[in-house]
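Protocol step 4 of 5: obtain the predicted structure for the target chain.
Materials: sequence only (see below). No template structures provided, no constraints applied. The aim of this step is simply to have a reference model before the mutagenesis design in step 5. Sequence pasted as it appears in the construct record:
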Amino acid sequence: MADPAGTLSYAMHWLRQTIADSESFRTWCGAEDQTEALARIHTVVSPPEDGLQYTEEELSAIRPYAMIWSENADSEKEALHTYSSRGQLGVRFVEDVPAAVRGDPEEAGQAFLATMSNIIADMEALAGSAGYLNITNISGGEDMQPVWGHPNDVTQEVIGQWVAFNVLWSG
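Step 4 output (structure tokens):
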């Protein structure tokens, strides 16, 4: 990824660092270290090989992952040459439903939300420390979504799930 330059790109960079240094995130995505974890945190996901639709194999190869994006950002003048910045980023966590719980959506959902709760707790613990995003609020998580084996066909088995959070920051 390109080096950050400017308030918004630094906020996104620091959010990636914060997530990558979450032990719960690393366990969830199977990363041994920060470099491997960063490879699972995207601002853009590559298009499918055929350019139209991902195959189940392609999706399984890229999941689990986190996707981050900017909702808004602003700067406010506090003194003659001093500005205070703040904004909101979004983060979506996406996983394959583990084979052991694919037939039990309730169990799959509860396990996923427990993992997400641990990742959020890690992010809160790191927030504001040097090299991490100064997170002032994390909200969301209540709208977990299934991913079916075939797009828009709810008769298919649920093979993945995702949940999104809003991350408010200042700095």
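Step 4 remarks: The domain at 7-170 is CATH 3.30.2000 (STM4215-like). The chain has a mean pLDDT of 85.
Proceed to step 5.
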